[in-house]
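Fold this sequence, please.
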Amino acid sequence: MAPNATEANLATDIPVSEHASKVRMIKWEEIRRHKSEDSPWLVINGKVYDVTEFQKRHPGGDMILLGAGRHSTELYLSHHPSYVLESKMLDKYYIGDVEGEEQIHDKSKGVHHDLFTGMKAAHLYDPKSQTDFYKVLRRRVEETLKKNGKKPRDDPEMYTKTVISLVVWFILYYSIHFYFENYFASLACAIVWGFANANIGMSVMHDGNHGGYSDSPVINRIMGGMFDFLGGSSFVWKMIHSVGHHVHTNVQELDPDIHTAEPHFRRIKPIQHQRWWYRYQHIYLPVLYCVLLPELFIRDFVAMFKGSWGGVPFQPAPTREWVIFWSTKAWFMIYLFVLPIWHCGSVMRVVSINLVALLIAGELLVLMFQVNHVTEAAISFNVNEKGIVEKDWAISQTEGSSNFAAGSWLWNHISGGLNHQTEHHLFPTISHVHYPMLHPVVMKTCKEFGVKYNNYPSFWDAIKGHFKLLKDMGAQGIKYDYHVE
């Protein structure tokens, strides 16, 4: 039997400032103006904190800015250990409460992707729906790491993996474009190079941009910058992935990873209208999936200039981010096309070989990501008429995620910890090399609290679970509920 739920706030261990006789009530219009490093305000559990001075000595560096000018309770919970959450260090920065007005969400108008800016509720997740699940689990995870003599980050295994991954990448790159004269030898290496690109993205970049690689913000930034080196944008990625997806996992109206316009090329949510082409989506999507990386390259430009993507408004990009964006995009084109073409003189050879590598990397990455949340096992959620999710946040992270081959050391390294998606969503700042050790702790705690823990026996089973969902969701005349809550 699950422990009783508390009627407290989102986490009973979040510090709450003592209210004066008259509390300052702050409107969202004012809060949203404080979303940059010039004067960042955080909204945690309905309370507003001005962390302008604290950001300069924040142990996580500029990660604190991810939550500026927006709901940041869930980011605060998932990015800090118990001793921080139980302290009163935030009290000195408290300036008032969010004004309790709420904007009604009209579901009759379909998918509404402006809830991030339009919603005026003090919470994203209903405080009355929160339980002690995450508090208990976090304590157990911290105790497990301590018992095994492990730090959450800066693990030698991760550093070793990084060196091997980068060395392999550079050897393959050099062999493909500067060593082999035979086209087919280069093509064979390009196939492996595609996996090498995906590996750096899933492992090194992923941990770095989540602040889960090192205790040093500088090292995290360097490792997260591997995404920029590979043609992406770490700034755009953090806005969409950390701020959007990780906070609103599988919330149909809010999760940018399952963002779908109307009409769309695929149907993965019950709230989408049915279209005739969806009946074939399980057949044509594997082909479309492979163009992920070229699509991301183009998307980054649109997102940076637009300042949002998938309904997620971005923080203002500082000048340094624009410099990184333009310089790394240019460098990507230089090392991928300009230098190889200058060396061999054949545009067709270079373009075709690079295309093979990019398509393979894209297909692998999409499959890894899709089996984490878009499966028949994962539950999706909706906001209510007030724009609030009536669910315990940590439980929604768990039930909205799908693992595969959980506990496997090999698959954990192959996937960069994505096979332990549940553990990752609950503890994104813990290095993925620890997930096999933490898996039994999470699974046991889920069982005690009656939380649905999704785990496919193998990667192949997870792929089948994804495509079964696509086939069922695309079936004409059939209403597929997709475990909606």
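The longest strand covers residues 94-98. The mean pLDDT is 90.
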